Amino acid sequence: MAYVIDQSRCINCSWCRRSCPTDTIRYFENTVRKHSVDPEACIDCDICAQVCPMDCISHAPEIRPTPENLAAAKDKARKWAGERRRLVVGLRTYAENLVKRLG
Amino acid sequence: MPTAFRERHNGESLREPPYHDIMQLTDEERQELARKIGGLQNYNPVVLRELARQDRRFLAPLIMAILSAEFRGIDFFGRFVVESEEYNVPWHMTLAFVRQTYDESRHTHLNMKLLESLGSYVGEYPDIVLGPGRDVSEIPPEELDPAILIARINVALEGFALTTFDEIREMAQKLGETLIEHCHDYNMADEVTHVAIGDYWLERLSEEAPWRVNRAKAAQEEFEKGIAMVRQMAAQYMGSQANGSAN
Lengths: 103, 247
Fold this sequence. Notes:
The structure holds two protein chains of two kinds. Chain A is an alpha+beta fold. Chain A has helices spanning about 15-20, 45-50, 65-100; strands at about 1-5, 25, 35, 55-60. Chain A has one domain: Alpha-Beta Plaits, CATH 3.30.70. A two-stranded antiparallel ribbon of chain A has the order 1-4. Chain B is mainly alpha-helical. Chain B contains eight helices and no strands. In chain B, α4 (about 60-85) packs antiparallel against α5 and α7 (about 180-210) packs antiparallel against α8. The mean pLDDT of chain B is about 85. Chains A and B meet through α3 of A and α3, α6, α7 and α8 of B.
């Protein structure tokens, strides 16, 4: 399953692209002016649909990536989540230590 | 090259008190800021937000960093309105920029009141450094094409503002800071409109000159990389510092 972006309503804010854990939302490479989802690396996580301020991203159950591509995309998403967690924990630890130091 | 603004105001912003960014601080001011926020490297919205989660006193510098960008927004959009005749853009596009100038002034007012409610004021913390405040003579002429300006400011910068406002709104909600939560939710709705206005006019301008599509995308990509790099570097630096102090 994958997600699709309604090209007539997308305002190109890029929020979905910046939030996508598999980097599968295309814009700069597109020949059309709007964002679009490359279904071959969509892992159906729903993050793009949740952040879209125009509510123009919807689920398209009929579009499915190949099993190999899906497995590779899930691997990429795991790495993305791990890196993100490390950054968040690092920032939080830094802030906690600094606040303690400043008293 | 647009000159109207420069002729009227000598290229200077009319803000009172004048912009005073972190690069212009005196030694004494730098020491004072470092004492308040634990080091100059922490004067970054990403870091301040994390510090504010731990301690309410960091909310004021966080709001000032956002407010500083809102002031720049008034300067940028207002300046575009004054100079729009020289850009030769449709009248309705100028009107859209008038609306955005008004929006930014409302955001400024809201953030100034938030600062007051936090016991701070404009001038207690420095301004952050942003591109739109540059003098027109410092900007290469090809970057002054209206489509390029829109791609950088309306689409790329305001697109990032969506994320920033949402992150602050979410943080304020968790902290029970209702005023900050409501104001930033309100501001975010305006930013969505600004991105939509930018995208709409980028398309209209590109109909007349198709070469603008790729140029605008390239300008946006470059601008986004710059902002993303600053956010990433701040997060990584803080992460490495935290790991170092934990070891």
